[in-house]
UniProtKB/TrEMBL annotation:
Protein name, UniProt field: Citrate synthase
Active site, renumbered: 306, 363
The family this protein is said to belong to: Belongs to the citrate synthase family.
GO MF term set: citrate synthase activity
Residues spanning the membrane: 364-387
Gene this chain is encoded by: gltA
Length: 428
């Protein structure tokens, strides 16, 4: 894989560093021997120019707005695949045939139930607890229930833990919503699809049959596909770093959930809809665009911008199309959608956003769809976490399966006090 060398001149030293070439995307300069041979670290807060690992799962071309899962474009997967099929693809590397997909779906379906004692965990939360706080707690607690599958060196243990996490996230998320509105929990119904089961557990009630609307089921399933994995984003990197210490997968995913919650990351879908509702009508958009451009104002257009995409986020394109499909299926409209379309139009015609290459990202339109389906904004990031769990466990498996993987332990540029002696209290 070594393609050529980079030469680093450091004082009197001249160091040849291997340049590694992947199957597509930027080459990397392999600096693993830099500190041992020069006593210097590299410096890259925020990892804007750092490849933390080698991966074969997801490829993003930020300039071209390309997102591939195991080589398949996200637009094709969103159009033609299902979340279960895309989950199998991410975990195993190839699209399954029908029998394999049926077996995988059956396995996941039969792990959707939660240990009955986990109900008690919900009782400890206030009814107005944010669902992400509940998700962090309940997912972390799963490790206390599955001592039969936490030997991460055993591929079978890794497989069953991965399946349990993918399968149980819909139940955990649906119950977090039910708990917040004081309605009874519904047990999974194995006769339904993964996504249909989630919709029923979320919106169904014991007193009557819940009808899963095919158009809503399809839209929800597509939203899960769009959120499944996204290279080494902050929460995935959190899961990898936690996993590198040998922590069990339930604890690692709980760490990923905590990181995803931030408004700069997965929390942006909730923040974006709140922002659009605060803006209200299109006539107020210029005021908010000016605020977003004002360096003295911390306000940012939520759902805009991306560390990697410097062109349109391909997921936002699919998401915008899905808004129209859901509105038509539910025969609803939402003035917020018109505001969102107008905001996008005005922002993209403004030099500030064009110069900084700020486009709508996956979070800009998703909230409008979720709101139309009936989710409160507080559930939006929990849905992101539900879908991203397959990406987290696939990335975790890829790392743990690498015999050469080491514990992640970055260094620093130290700018604190140099050594000094302790001063007793009476002398200060
Ligand atoms: C997700 O990494 C992933 O892949 C994440 C994700 C995934 O699937 O896992 O794609 C999901 O997290 C999507 C992003 C959701 N976050 C938001 O929508 C929050 C709003 N956007 C930002 O805060 C910001 O754009 C980030 C955090 C997404 C990216 O930040 P970067 O890459 O660190 O860029 P930056 O903060 O250095 O901004 C570059 C410039 C700055 O101006 P200058 O200091 O250069 O003058 O652009 C400005 C920023 O002020 N800027 C914005 C802006 N985003 C960046 N200005 C106004 N509104 C914005 N939204």
């Amino acid at each position: 894989m070594v393609d050529n060398n980079a030469t680093l001149n450091l004082g009197e030293q001249s160091l040849d560093l291997p340049v590694l070439e992947g199957s597509c995307g930027p080459d990397v300069v392999d600096i693993r021997k830099l500190y041992a041979q020069t006593g210097n670290f590299t410096y890259d807060p925020g990892f804007t120019s750092t490849a933390s690992c080698e991966s074969a799962l997801t490829f993003i071309d930020g300039e071209e707005g390309v997102l591939l899962h195991r080589g398949y474009p996200i637009g094709q997967l969103a159009e033609s695949s299902s979340f279960m099929e895309t989950s199998y693809l991410l975990l195993n590397g190839e699209l399954p045939d029908q029998d394999t997909l049926n077996d995988f779906t059956h396995t996941i379906t039969r792990h959707t139930m939660l240990h009955d004692q986990l109900r008690q965990f919900y009782q400890g939360f206030r009814r107005d607890a944010h669902p992400m706080a509940i998700m962090c707690g309940v997912v972390g607690a799963l490790s206390a229930f599955y001592h039969d599958s936490t030997d991460i060196s055993d591929p079978e243990h890794r497989k069953i833990s991965s399946h349990r996490l993918i399968a149980k996230m819909p139940t955990i998320a649906a119950w977090a919503y039910k708990y917040s509105i004081g309605q009874p929990f519904l047990q999974p119904d194995n006769s339904l699809s993964y996504t249909g089961n989630f919709l029923r557990m979320t919106f169904g009630v014991p007193a009557e049959e819940y009808e899963v609307l095919p158009a809503v089921e399809r839209a929800m399933d597509r939203i899960f596909i769009l959120h499944a994995d996204h290279e080494q984003n902050a929460s995935t990197s959190t899961v990898r770093l936690a996993g590198s210490s040998g922590a069990n997968p339930f604890a690692c995913v709980a760490a990923g959930i905590a990181c995803l919650w931030g408004p700069a990351h997965g929390g942006a879908n909730e923040a974006a809809l709140n922002m659009l509702q605060e803006i209200g009508t299109p006539d107020r958009i210029p005021e908010y665009i000016e605020r977003a451009k004002d360096k003295n104002d911390p306000f940012r257009l939520m759902g805009f911008g991306h560390r990697v995409y410097k062109n349109y986020d391909p997921r936002a394109t699919v998401m915008q199309k899905t808004v129209r499909e859901v509105f038509e299926a539910l025969n609803v409209t939402d003035p917020v959608f018109e505001t969102a379309l107008r905001l996008e139009e005005l922002a993209l015609s403004d030099d500030y956003f064009a110069e900084k290459k700020l486009f709508p990202n996956v979070d800009f339109y998703s909230g409008i769809i979720l709101s139309a389906i009936g989710f409160p904004t507080t559930m939006f990031t929990a849905l992101f976490a539900l879908a991203r769990t397959v990406g987290w466990v696939a990335q975790w498996n890829e790392m743990i399966s690498d015999p050469g993987q080491k514990i992640g332990r970055p260094r620093q540029l130290y700018t604190g006090p140099t050594q000094r002696d302790y001063i007793s209290l009476d002398k200060r």
